[in-house]
């Protein structure tokens, strides 16, 4: 079976506590870590940090298996303004080289959320900007033997249909999908909430939320990595499996058939949701082996 990897919110650690957290994972039999957006940003800000980070990893028997690019309004692939997009692409190329230098072969990227900062651009213009960004980045990804994995979220830019159009446009082995179970759960069905991230996102475009309980089925042939976390269907809570209403037997059963899948990733955010590491590792072993 593909390796199980763990995200930790290392922004809440320092040089003394970071190896303690890594050793805590190791003591529970978990040796695969996510090279997170936070860690990549720290390396970009201080290139010397990479030596400290890799020493911590070696000393605690940890390995980086997958990664997540920095993200946000000015980082995402849908930046429509040419000058701002070129700055984004420069930062993304650096992130890709860092990831590859650390021996990681997949990087999840946010295509973007059509942010309010870019007033007046249409849905199609955002989609075209994403494809222009991918056209620029994919040759480098191929050279680095890196797969860029576009992630489903809850915006007009990252519905399954939009992601599949990107995949179909490029037909590149260096482009795949990161399936996010928590995001898909928010989009699965109308639960009668008056507010939620999808409701707010689609309200900006005066459109109903396109609820879809077959997101994984649609994306499955192209899923290269996955973010596994739970929620109650209203907010993106990044909680442990069993603390929300994601149908884990169904999701895990399908993911095990994904032909391109390289890893299972816990995207529970431990410090934020107060998830004990020992329990976190145990719960994921149970859902993957149950």
Overview of this protein structure:
This protein is α/β, with parallel strands linked by helices and 290 residues long. The protein has a single domain, classed as Alpha-Beta Barrel (TIM Barrel), CATH 3.20.20.150. It is 44% helix and 13% strand. The chain is built from 12 helices and 8 strands. The protein has an 8-stranded parallel beta sheet with strand order 1-8-7-6-5-4-3-2. The model has no long low-confidence stretch (mean pLDDT 97).
Break the fold down into its secondary structure elements and pairings.
Layout (H helix, E strand, L loop, with lengths): L3 E3 L10 H11 L4 E4 L1 H9 L3 H11 L3 E6 L13 H20 L4 E4 L13 H22 L2 E5 L8 H11 L4 E6 H6 L10 H7 L11 H5 L3 E6 L19 H8 L8 E3 L3 H4 L3 H13 L1
Parallel strand pairs: 1-8, 2-3, 3-4, 4-5, 5-6, 6-7, 7-8
Helix pairs in contact: 2-4, 4-5, 5-6
CATH class: Alpha Beta
Mean pLDDT: 97
Pattern of helices and strands: EHEHHEHEHEHEHHHEHEHH
Tell me the number of structural domains: 1
- Give the DSSP E fraction (strand runs of 2 or more residues): 5-15%
- Count of distinct strands: 8
By DSSP (H or I, 4+ residues per run), the number of helices equals 12
How widely separated are the two ends? Answer: 13 Å
Features:
alpha/beta, TIM Barrel, 12 helices
Quick synopsis:
This protein is an alpha/beta fold and 290 residues long.
């Amino acid at each position: 079976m593909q390796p199980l990897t763990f995200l930790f919110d290392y922004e809440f650690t320092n040089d003394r506590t970071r190896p303690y957290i890594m050793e805590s994972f190791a003591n529970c039999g978990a040796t695969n870590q996510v090279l997170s957006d936070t860690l990549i940003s720290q390396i970009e800000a201080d290139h010397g940090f990479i030596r400290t980070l890799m020493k911590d990893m070696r000393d605690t028997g940890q390995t980086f298996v997958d990664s997540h690019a920095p993200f946000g309004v000015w980082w995402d692939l849908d930046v429509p303004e040419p000058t701002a997009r070129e700055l984004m692409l420069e930062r993304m190329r650096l992130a890709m080289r860092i990831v590859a230098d650390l021996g990681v072969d997949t990087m999840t990227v946010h295509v973007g959320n059509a942010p309010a900062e870019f007033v007046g651009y249409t849905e199609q213009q955002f989609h075209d900007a994403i494809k222009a960004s991918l056209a620029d980045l994919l040759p480098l990804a191929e050279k680095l033997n890196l797969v860029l994995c576009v992630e489903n979220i809850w915006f007009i830019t990252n519905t399954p249909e939009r992601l599949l159009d990107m995949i179909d446009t490029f037909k590149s082995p260096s482009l795949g999908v990161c399936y996010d179970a928590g995001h898909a759960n928010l989009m699965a069905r109308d639960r009668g909430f008056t507010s939620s991230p999808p409701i707010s996102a689609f309200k900006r475009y005066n459109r109903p939320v396109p609820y879809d309980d077959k997101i994984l089925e649609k994306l499955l042939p192209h899923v290269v990595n996955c973010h596994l976390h739970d929620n109650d269907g209203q907010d993106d809570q990044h909680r442990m499996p069993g603390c929300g209403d994601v149908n884990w037997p169904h999701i895990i059963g399908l993911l095990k058939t994904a032909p391109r899948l390289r890893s299972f990733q816990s995207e529970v955010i431990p410090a934020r949701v107060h998830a004990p590491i020992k329990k976190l590792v145990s719960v994921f072993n149970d859902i993957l082996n149950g």
